[in-house]
Design a protein that fits this description.
The chain has 4 helices and 12 strands. With 220 residues, it is of the alpha+beta class. It folds into 2 domains: 119 residues, Winged helix-like DNA-binding domain superfamily/Winged helix DNA-binding domain (Arc Repressor Mutant, subunit A); 81 residues, Ribbon (Umud Fragment, subunit A). Strand 8 and strand 9 form a beta hairpin. Helix 2 crosses helix 4. The protein starts with a strand and ends in a 5-residue tail after the last strand.
């Protein structure tokens, strides 16, 4: 399981050096991943304006060698150490961005990690674990969560009525408003789209965490 990492020293002092081409490549890779796609070598070639994919492939290999990138079991790129905040590490904490969750795997299993995203320490309470997840659909648009936005989630297995939670139901993650009655749990959508209906449960689900902030989707 992956947790947030506190950075207390600059990577320039404690790790490998990065040239401008590597930093540019990592920036483009990060932008692709944050917007939901693991880039191909040709994607990076095009983004950097190279004539040949070999130059892009060599940059990717260099970043893997320097342990800021890795490839998962399906050969997609993952950012395992984001160096974009290296100038201000004391003010940010790296939080895992979780992608789609295949049936039967834990939410924060390594294969579900898309990137490590620096998040302001003002949003993070020390001693807790956090993750980011991308919102899909419009079931929570009345509370400002739109498809493509990100939510910052404090990892915990319990919630209070009125909390917005990430719940795992039949191995699918959903974001809903939590309500407990005497006999059931109700996960309510908060949407202008009336096709979304409450989900009524007993104990046949798992709370993965409580949403503490919504981060609107952004473009480059």
């Amino acid at each position: 399981m992956l947790y947030i990492h506190y950075n207390t020293h600059s990577m320039q002092k404690q790790g490998p050096q990065f040239n401008k081409r590597e930093l540019d490549a990592l920036r483009h890779i990060r932008n692709f991943i944050v917007h939901g796609k693991s880039p191909s070598v040709r994607d990076i070639q095009k983004a950097l304006g190279y004539d040949s994919p070999r130059s892009a492939a060599l940059l990717i290999d260099a970043l893997i060698e320097k342990k800021v990138l890795a490839r998962n079991t399906t050969d997609e790129l993952q950012i395992i150490k984001d160096i974009s905040a290296r100038q201000d590490n004391a003010q940010t904490i790296e939080v895992p961005l979780v992608g789609s969750v295949p049936a039967g795997t834990p939410m924060l299993a390594e294969e579900n990690l898309e990137a490590m995203i620096p998040v302001s320490k003002q949003l993070i309470k020390p001693g807790n674990r956090y993750f980011l997840i991308r919102v899909v659909g419009d079931s929570m648009n009345q509370v400002g969560m739109h498809s493509g936005d990100f939510v910052l989630v404090k990892q915990q297995q319990s919630a209070e009525t009125g909390d917005i939670v990430v719940a795992l139901i039949d191995d699918d993650a959903t974001v809903k408003e939590y309500h407990r009655t005497a006999t059931t749990i109700v996960l309510k959508p908060r949407s202008k789209n009336k096709e979304h209906k409450p989900i009524i449960l007993t104990n046949d689900f798992q709370i993965q965490g409580v949403v503490v902030a919504t981060i609107p989707n952004f473009e480059d």
